[in-house]
């Protein structure tokens, strides 16, 4: 089935397909255009309160519909479900924490390499701090929304914190009624694009959330930053030809 999380992510992807400036990031005092849409989210390995959490990273295509979003998310979530399933980031964290001081040294080294664009791509693909957007669904555990900080390390551009649905009394056409609201805390890196981009982003997001039928079909066209066009196969499709991954392209010094 489809849920609010699917709708919210699908709306975000649709806006990025029209406003690629939102998918940029800052590294080493330079602005880069990202050559993929990445979304990170926390996933519980089990259904109990004692179950561990892990970070799942999902790659999306700018032409994805809400159904494509659901399929991609389910594939990655199912791959991370199970108490015995550990991804690279989980194993690395467990290993470095065994030796006192080792974690601090490794983090400092990775930060240095990342600052100058020398961090291996395989490592960046696994680390949870390099992504277009980070989203956490606090409503799933009955908590309020949060305004989470943007990490100083990595390339997170937007952080969304969904909270528990609230019932609020409103007056419409002279009559009082109860209305349900989904509170969302959004923290954005204002360096990557202009305020006009963010204004268009919030306006379009609001429209799409109120007209989800628009997300049932792909966009008529997609805009990309120069030299950063990217495509990934749909879930279940086999790519016709494996292409070399494009490198990130500098947008602005």
Note down, in words, how this protein is organized.
With 253 residues, the chain is of the alpha+beta class. Helices cover 30% and strands 23% of the residues. It has helices at residues 4-18, 66-80, 88-96, 102-115, 121-126, 195-210; strands spanning 24-27, 30-33, 37-44, 53-60, 133-137, 158-162, 166-172, 175-181, 184-188, 249-252. It has a 5-stranded mixed sheet with strand order 4-3-5-6-9, covered by helices on one side. Strands 1-2-10 form a 3-stranded antiparallel sheet, with no helix packed on it. Strands 7-8 form a two-stranded antiparallel ribbon.
Q: In short, what is this structure?
A:
The chain has 253 residues and is an alpha+beta fold.
Fold blueprint:
Elements: H1 4-18, E1 24-27, E2 30-33, E3 37-44, E4 53-60, H2 66-80, H3 88-96, H4 102-115, H5 121-126, E5 133-137, E6 158-162, E7 166-172, E8 175-181, E9 184-188, H6 195-210, E10 249-252
Parallel strand pairs: 3-5, 5-6
Antiparallel strand pairs: 1-2, 2-10, 3-4, 6-9, 7-8
Helix pairs in contact: 1-2, 1-6
Q: Biggest sheet: strands, sense, closure?
A: 5 strands, mixed
| Discrete helix count | 6
Give the neighbour order of strands across the main sheet: 4-3-5-6-9
Query: What portion of the residues fall into strands of 2 or more residues?
Result: 15-25%
């Amino acid at each position: 089935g489809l849920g609010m999380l699917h709708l919210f992510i699908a709306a975000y992807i649709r806006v990025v397909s029209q406003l690629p400036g939102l998918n940029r990031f800052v590294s080493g005092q330079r602005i880069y255009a990202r050559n993929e849409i990445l979304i990170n989210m926390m996933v519980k390995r089990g259904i109990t309160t004692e179950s561990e959490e892990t970070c799942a990273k999902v790659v999306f295509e700018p032409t994805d519909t809400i159904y494509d979003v659901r399929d991609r998310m389910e594939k990655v979530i199912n791959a991370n479900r199970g108490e015995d399933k550990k991804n690279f980031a989980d194993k690395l964290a467990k290993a470095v924490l065994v030796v006192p001081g080792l974690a601090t040294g490794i983090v400092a080294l990775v930060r240095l390499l990342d600052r100058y664009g020398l961090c291996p791509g395989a490592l960046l693909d696994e680390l949870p701090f390099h992504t277009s957007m980070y989203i956490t669904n606090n409503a799933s555990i009955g908590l309020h929304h949060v305004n989470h900080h943007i990490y100083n390390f990595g390339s997170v551009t937007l952080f969304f914190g969904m909270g528990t649905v609230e019932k609020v009394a409103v007056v419409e056409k002279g009559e009082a009624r109860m209305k349900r609201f989904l509170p969302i805390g959004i923290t954005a890196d204002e360096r990557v694009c202009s305020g006009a981009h963010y204004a268009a982003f919030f306006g379009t997001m609001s429209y799409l959330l109120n007209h989800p039928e628009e997300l049932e079909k792909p966009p008529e066209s997609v805009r990309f930053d120069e030299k950063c066009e990217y495509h990934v196969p749909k879930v279940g499709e086999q790519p016709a030809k494996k292409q070399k991954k494009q490198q990130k392209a500098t947008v602005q010094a």
